[in-house]
Specification:
Layout: H1 16-27, H2 37-64, H3 72-81, H4 88-130, H5 135-154
Helix pairs in contact: 1-2, 2-3, 3-4
């Protein structure tokens, strides 16, 4: 169940800057402690191994349940089965927060798209209004365009 099943973890890593930011947040600026480069690299390797272990176990659980997608409940079971039950509540809390952020993000995107559509409709409406033509003149132009298109269609290939 280790990364050896996947041919080694040489290609797997985590961004050093992100890990350094997490370390800095945990240690705090005023602690006076520093975290060496070797220690940071070791932490990255351990984190990758831990993630690989959990995801492999969760994948096996999902496969046993004939699921093609690993869900939060599979991570929950994997953590418990591997002896990390103390992480479950925090992991599920973070997963819930992430889900909420996605909802808010998706809702915001929908609102932006609707606003864009309304602006486009307003522009089209304004274009007709700004043309200075009456409804009868616009209708006459439309009918002329339809007649012209029909003639081109009926005349066949040029």
């Amino acid at each position: 169940m280790s990364d050896r099943e996947f041919g080694g973890n040489d290609d797997l890593t985590l961004p050093k800057a992100t890990i350094q930011k997490i370390i800095t947040e945990i240690l705090g600026d005023k602690s006076g402690l520093t975290f060496g480069k070797d220690a940071r690299d070791l932490l990255i390797d351990c984190s990758v191994e831990f993630i690989t272990l959990i995801s492999s176990e969760a994948n096996e659980i999902a496969e046993k349940e004939s699921k093609k997608t690993i869900a939060a409940e599979h991570i929950d079971k994997a953590l418990r089965e591997l002896g990390f039950p103390e992480y479950v509540s925090e992991v599920l809390a973070v997963a819930g927060e992430h889900k909420e952020q996605l909802k808010v993000s998706t809702f915001s995107e929908l609102q932006e798209n609707r606003a864009d559509e309304l602006q486009t409709r307003e522009k089209k409406t304004n274009k007709l209004q700004d043309s200075g033509l009456t409804d009868e003149q616009l209708l006459q132009q439309q009918q002329e365009l339809f007649r012209s298109a029909t003639e081109k269609y009926n005349s066949g290939p040029a």
